[in-house]
Specification:
Blueprint lengths: L3 E4 L2 E3 L5 E7 L9 E6 L5 E7 L6 E3 L7 E6 L4 E6 L8 E7 L2 E2 L3 E5 L2
Parallel strand pairs: 2-11
Antiparallel strand pairs: 1-3, 3-8, 4-5, 4-9, 5-6, 7-8, 9-10, 9-11
Length: 112
Amino acid sequence: QVPLQESGGGLAQPGGTLRLSCAASGFTFSSSRMFWVRQAPGKGLEWVSDITPDGRFTYYTDSVKGRFTISRDNGKNTLILQMNSLKPEDTAQYFCVGWGYWGQGTQVTVSS
């Protein structure tokens, strides 16, 4: 069983929305700070957002503040990234990270 499995990526138009999900298994999800990290084509890894284990506190890189929302459901072992007002520069492979694990990533492409 894969510890972290992302889903929900795809193609969106500029200004559009996508919702990424990450299903966690095999570790104590509710005790883990969780992260979203992305990698744009030809670029390095970029931290996007993270959330405390209890979900009370969230943090965002400046470029996504006000557009992206991270959340979690500890009862369902699920991490969410709601992405609104998407821009072409959001195009990247998005990874769910936590408890020392990385998911395989899901591709987000923003293009008209």
